[in-house]
Give the backbone structure.
Amino acid sequence: MSLTSSSLSERLLPERVVARARLGDREPLARLVIAGLAVLLVAVMLFSLTTGALQISLSAVVDGLFGQGEAASPSELRDRIVLMDVRLPRVLLGALIGAALAVSGAVMQGLFRNPLADPGIVGVSAGAGLGAASMIVLGTTALSPVVAVLGIYALPLAAFLGGLVTTFALYRIGTRGGMTSIATMLLAGIALAALAGAATGLLVFVADDQQLRDLNFWGLGSLAGANWEKILAAGPIIAIVLVGVPFLASGLNALVLGEAAAGHLGIRVQRLKRIAIVAVAAATGASVAVSGGIGFVGIVVPHLLRLTIGPDHRFLLPACALLGGSLLILADTVSRTIVAPAELPIGILTALAGAPFFLWILLRRKGLIAS
Amino acid sequence: MSTPATPTLEIEALHVSLGGTPIVRDVSFSAKAGQVTVIVGPNGSGKSTTLKAVTGELPHSGRVRLNGTEVGGLPPEALAGLRAVLPQHASLTFPLTVAEVVRLGIRRGALIAGSPHRRIAEALERVDLDGFAARDYHSLSGGEQQRVQLARVLCQVWEPCPDGVPRWLFLDEPISSLDIRHQILIMDVAADYARAGGGVVAVLHDLNLTALYADHILVMKTGRLLSQGTPKQVITDRLVSEAFDHPLRVSAVPAGEVPFILPQAAGPAAAVR
């Protein structure tokens, strides 16, 4: 099977893109796809801003966003409040979290040299969840000095720490002599997730009613609590990761050949691995802290994109950020409209779509597990 | 680095242990740029381990100096510009095209003029893979994959001796999965690289191709250097028989020129001789 051409896409794509793809170079194709995904993200954001229990017209959205004209009537005023204080933070948070989850999935897969690695599947989210739960339950008692110092950043930083410890443990357990055993990594992930789950269970056991409600709501995975404060808490961490990871791209590309070969190509492999682990833990931690466990975005998005533009991380990482954001906003729009006025937690939706997808990858690549 | 660079690879008292077991013991040799240096020896004699230690892949004691500079003191980026390494096995995690694999060898800023595509096409042509650029690497045969990796390695140190500073190719069994035509083709590529001023150090199993292509041969046995020298000095009845623990007879083709080993069966027939 050729990776680069099919008759349909050849008719739809510009000639130059097709010609370069015939030379095995998917770079022009990747640039085109990234531009398309950027347009898609803007379109999805506008769509989500207009859609909901209250329909807001596109022109009202544009007016509201760019401050054109005063709200004349009470209904316009109401629309504007819904738009600016409810929907806009939710859409922005969706874009941030979706990007963070997809990018950390892609980085983790590159780091572990394994297309099945995903923070949700191998226990990093569970570790981050334990960190967040500790802060929710103990933040008013044992950890209250931490909250006093860090404020709104206490929760995401605790989740980051939990994710970091888990990722590091996973790497140490799963990797021997530079080779990560896929089976060992998945099994270690199950054990670490169980351990983190048990510790989270202990916290639930000692939590009071209000904390229980917080924990429960947060554990389902949802963007429902989106507000500007959460964006302020998680946004900077995710933004730093998103801006930073493109610098890992050429290293992750070389790592496709293996650690030794990457080293021979002049990559400082140990440093690359350390930075990648911290980036994954930071993005996952910040996401988990504000939106709970939203699974499978990190595995579905990179996989779909690799099928289209190939595994070159220089393009894969930005494309993941754009598509991850779009998909999560779409999923969230569905989750808050499909059973309106109630809301379906988005984590249920992504798992419903993502888990069968994961199994499909497994069936297609059975050989991976045996190796 | 004010001292003028010496165009050699110098190995002094190399020791490598893996899991407490000494694999390479007190190996010292030097290889010259402009020559093909070949390491031969039976399985488990420490050939590949020596190469891996020299390229920095395995922890070792002893000195490794490339062009007069201690290798351990060079930053990875600088070292990558000085030498490329072809591994014995290379598996990819993700489905890259052939062109994308070769491109990994082109370092940032290495191409001052020209496009990477021309360089990639040229490299693929050298290893007899023109027309393969868009193929999925995983769909290739083992021998084709080996040649793609060589094309990548060539791209990493494309000019054999720019500004009078030789570049080095370290090749770990570069022809092990190749048919005879491609074995010769790849050895020609290596020999051309050396003739143009670069250095080539290869681990080979085929003694006859070694005799044909090597300028300098290192014979290893049980982790030590058994002997070294030109093909005529090293490929002799006594030495190859000792190295491989098997009675071997060396002839010459054409008469008196290139040493040639004709394998013989062990057992009673061998005992008669």
